[in-house]
Design brief:
four-stranded antiparallel β-sheet; globular; single chain; Chloramphenicol Acetyltransferase; OB fold (Dihydrolipoamide Acetyltransferase, E2P); Dihydrolipoamide Transferase; about 425 residues; alpha+beta; eight-stranded mixed β-sheet; 9 helices
C-alpha cells in the first residue's frame, strides 16, 4: 500500500518535510512516526496508518508536500489496505505546488488571463473551495481577478498558482514591482550586495516567510497608534519576594509575567473593546467574553505566539506553571497549530532581554497588543515630595485606530498601571 500525507488539521493542507525518521527496509508499526512536517508555525509528527516493511520512500527532507501526496510504500502487514483493512485509495491526482505551476517563460499574450483590476470591484466573485479562498486571502489576491479553469469558472489552486506566476513574470518585465495588500505596489529587493564586500546568503525558513507575510499584512492594513506608560513595580516585587519560596515548592517560578497577565485581564474586563476583533466584511465589532492571551515567545527559529486560554479563570500559580510549559514547547517547536489560534489579546515581553519602550505590531485579527520592556530603577518623586529609586516597568500599547480612539487608549493605560501598582496580595496567596 501507499502511505499518503493525511489532512492533519484546519489549514494544514501542505507543509515542508523537516526530517524523515525511517528508511527503506525498516519494518514499522501502525501509529509509528515516519516523518516530521513543518506547517505554518508548527512542526508536527506524521504517523503511519498501517504497519509493514518499507519498500520505497517518496519524499526527502526539504520537500514541500500537499494532502494526498505519497510518502512511502509498504508491504507485509499493511499491504493491500489501510490501517482499518479497507482497500487502498486510488492514486490521487497530484496537485501542483504554486512554484511548480508557474511557467518558466510567459509570453505577453498570456497576460490576457489576468483579469483587469476593475474586476475586483465590478465583477462577481467566482466559485472556489474554502481552502482556495483561504490561500487567496492570505496572498492578498482578489478571486475576481483570477480566471477559473474548472466547470462554471470555478477557481482551483492551480489557477491561483498560474496567476501568481504570471504576476511574477509581469513584475520582471515591469521593473521588479510586486502587488501587496489592498492593491499597494512596492519595489522588490533584488540586488547583488557582493559587489560591495563579502556577504553570506541564508535562505529564509518557512517560519520566517510566514512571519514576514503576517507582519507586512498587519502593519499595512491596520492603522497603528501607540500609547506609552510606566508602572511602579515596587508592590509586585515585594509580593514576589514574599511568596517566591512557596511557589517554588509548588513547582512554579514566580516571575513578574503572571502578575502582569492578571492585571491585564482585570483591565480588559473594564475595557471590552480592547478584547475584540473587527469583522471587516460584515462591518461588525465582535466583543469577546473570553480572555485567551497570546504570549509572544522568542525562539531560535523566530517569533511564536502560543495562547494562554481562559486567563481570567486561572490562579496566579496555574498561570505561572502554564507559562513555563508553553514557553518550553515553543522553544522546542512542539506547539500544535491549535495552541496558537484563538487569542483575544497578545503580550510581547522583552523584559528578560532588555530595552525600554518599543512599538509592537498588532496581531491581526486582534485590535491591540501590550509591549513590556525591562524593569529598571528610576528616580521617582513620591506623594510626599521625596525622590526615591523605584523599579519602573515601561509599557507600550499599540491599538487599531479604527476601533479604539486615543482617549480610550489613555484610560486603558491609566487603569492598567493602577492594576499593576495596586496588585492585591490575596491573588498571590496559595
Amino acid at each position: 500500500m501507499d502511505v499518503r500525507f493525511p489532512k492533519v488539521g484546519e489549514g494544514a493542507d501542505s507543509g515542508k518535510v523537516v526530517s524523515v525518521l525511517v528508511k527503506v527496509g525498516d519494518t514499522i508499526t501502525a501509529g509509528q512516526t515516519i516523518l516530521e512536517l513543518e506547517s505554518e508555525k508548527a512542526i508536527a509528527p506524521i504517523p503511519s496508518p498501517a504497519g509493514g516493511k518499507i519498500t520505497a520512500i517518496s519524499v526527502k527532507e526539504g520537500d514541500t508536500i500537499s494532502v494526498g501526496a505519497v510518502l512511502l510504500s509498504l508491504e507485509g502487514d499493511g499491504a493491500g489496505g489501510s490501517a482499518g483493512g479497507a482497500p487502498a485509495a486510488p492514486a490521487a491526482k497530484k496537485t501542483a505546488s504554486p512554484k511548480a505551476a508557474r511557467p518558466a517563460v510567459v509570453d505577453d499574450d498570456e497576460d490576457d488571463d489576468l483579469l483587469p483590476a476593475a474586476a475586483e470591484d465590478d465583477g462577481p466573485v467566482p466559485a472556489a473551495s474554502p481552502y482556495v479562498r483561504k490561500v487567496a486571502r492570505e496572498l492578498g489576491i482578489p478571486l475576481s481577478r483570477v480566471r477559473g479553469s474548472a466547470s462554471g469558472g470555478r477557481v482551483l489552486i492551480e489557477d491561483l498558482a498560474r496567476y501568481v506566476g504570471k504576476l511574477e513574470a509581469k513584475v520582471a518585465r515591469a521593473g521588479k514591482y510586486a502587488e501587496g495588500p489592498q492593491g499597494l505596489s512596492f519595489p522588490l529587493v533584488n540586488q547583488d550586495f557582493a559587489v560591495f564586500g563579502p556577504v553570506t546568503s541564508e535562505p529564509l525558513t518557512q517560519l520566517r516567510k510566514v512571519i514576514s507575510a503576517r507582519m507586512v499584512e498587519n502593519k499595512v492594513t491596520l492603522p497603528h497608534v501607540t500609547q506609552f506608560a510606566d508602572a511602579d513595580m515596587s508592590g509586585i516585587e515585594a509580593l514576589r519576594a514574599q511568596f517566591k519560596a512557596a511557589y517554588e515548592k509548588a513547582g512554579a517560578k514566580l516571575t513578574p509575567t503572571p502578575f502582569l497577565i492578571k492585571a491585564l485581564v482585570n483591565t480588559l474586563q473594564k475595557h471590552p473593546k480592547f478584547n475584540a476583533s473587527l469583522q471587516e466584511v460584515a462591518e461588525t465589532l465582535i466583543i469577546k467574553h473570553y480572555y485567551h492571551i497570546g504570549i509572544a515567545v522568542d525562539t531560535d527559529a523566530g517569533l511564536l505566539v502560543p495562547v494562554l486560554r481562559d486567563a481570567d479563570k486561572k490562579s496566579l500559580l496555574e498561570i505561572a506553571k502554564e507559562l513555563s510549559e508553553i514557553a518550553a514547547l515553543a522553544r522546542d517547536r512542539k506547539l500544535s497549530p491549535d495552541s496558537m489560534k484563538g487569542g483575544s489579546f497578545t503580550v510581547s515581553n522583552q523584559g528578560a532581554i532588555g530595552g525600554s519602550h518599543f512599538t509592537p505590531i498588532i496581531n491581526k485579527p486582534e485590535v491591540a497588543i501590550l509591549g513590556l520592556g525591562k524593569t529598571s530603577p528610576k528616580a521617582v518623586v513620591t506623594a510626599d515630595g521625596k525622590i526615591e529609586a523605584r523599579p519602573i516597568l515601561p509599557l507600550t500599547i499599540s491599538y487599531d485606530h479604527r476601533v479604539i480612539d486615543g482617549g480610550s487608549a489613555a484610560r486603558f493605560a491609566v487603569d492598567l498601571v493602577q492594576a499593576i501598582e495596586t496588585f492585591p496580595a490575596s491573588s498571590v496567596k496559595l
